[in-house]
Amino acid sequence: MHLMEGELPTSMSGSCGACINGKLYVFGGYDDKGYSNRLYFVNLRARDGTYVWEKITNFEGQPPTPRDKLSCWVYEDRLIYFGGYGCRRHNELQDCFDVHDASWEEQIFWGWHNDVHVFDTKTQNWLQPEIKGGVPPQPRAAHTCAVLGNKGYIFGGRVLQTRMNDLHYLNLDTWTWSGRIPINGENPKHRSWHTLTAIADDTLFLFGGLSADNTPLSDGWIHNVITNCWKQLTHLPKTKPRLWHTACLGKENEVMVFGGSKDDLLSLDTGHCNDLLIFQTQPYSLLRSCLDCIGKNAIILESQISLLPPKLLQQVLKKITFWTAANHREEQRAQKEEKEKKCQWISSD
């Protein structure tokens, strides 16, 4: 846990966070006062370990209208935002906005967006690029996005009562849309509140979300952008559905999923999740496998570990600490289960 100081963002849901050069930027979201289009950042590489938030107010240009459940591509020191659900005034209505509801007295409209806005973190400028061609995706929110090369991909999301399973990309150099990408073979289910993670130069990993029939999903899919094929992973645990979670890529190309919910939040919420799910998308390196093996068998190899080169020894000691703690937690869990079984046996007897 780190202490937070400075101009902290207010407690919001549906905000959009993204990292550039060690700085975390948080935009938009929703609270009891309505939708936001404020932008904050914090330096995660602070030397003293204290995180100081700043609200960005000295920008130039026009920021997006207030919204939540949008997505962000990070490309060349720029934050490129797409879509989301929010509000606009009557004089702000455009083709990029699909109206859901309205307050005629206040002339405020709520709905879904498919516009693109760019924040340049170097110049502190907002701009709305001119889309040069292609068919843009339908307005949506609670979709997901990922960057491969100079292409920003989006998948799924919701508009009105419809959840989608379409895949598009925006060329982030030429500002042209691909149109809906034709898929060879099977498609993932329609969904929202899922994640899409780039795991290689030509590969995306899709996980979880909420289906069109409001079922929390635990499926995982790999998409190859060269063959335009989806492949479902068959070994994922079906008892770990997730929606509105976060996902990121680890050092060994494992996808780390944290938080979110296991329920249909529109009708039920028994509590959010705080466990970390790790999906290994390719074999670990030989070095990683050897370090794990030594860490698990430190007692057997005790007399030889000190002979390792200093740099390698540091990595081994970290692994030994990790596996010692992991084994301790597993022993505690097993003892707790055994104790609970004995209590149940005594009470039933």
What does the model show?
This protein is α+β, with helices and mostly antiparallel strands and 349 residues long. Helix content is 15%, strand content 42%. It has three helices and 23 strands. It has helices at residues 286-296, 302-305, 310-348; strands spanning 4-6, 16-20, 23-31, 34-43, 51-55, 67-68, 71-75, 78-89, 97-103, 108-120, 125-127, 144-148, 151-159, 162-171, 176-177, 191-192, 195-200, 203-211, 216-224, 229-233, 246-249, 254-258, 276-280. The strands form five sheets. Strands 6, 7, 8, 9, 10 and 11 form a six-stranded antiparallel beta sheet that branches. Strands 1-5-4-3-2 form a five-stranded mixed beta sheet, with no helix packed on it. Strands 16, 17, 18, 19 and 20 form a five-stranded antiparallel beta sheet that branches. The protein is globular, with a radius of gyration of 23 Å.
Low-confidence stretches: none
**What is the average per-residue confidence, as pLDDT, rounded to a whole number?**
91
Cα-atom Rg, whole angstroms? 23 Å
Biggest beta sheet attributes: 6 strands, antiparallel
What's the number of helices? 3
Determine the strand fraction and express it as a percent band.
35-45%
Features:
349 residues; alpha+beta; six-stranded antiparallel beta sheet; 3 helices; 23 strands; globular
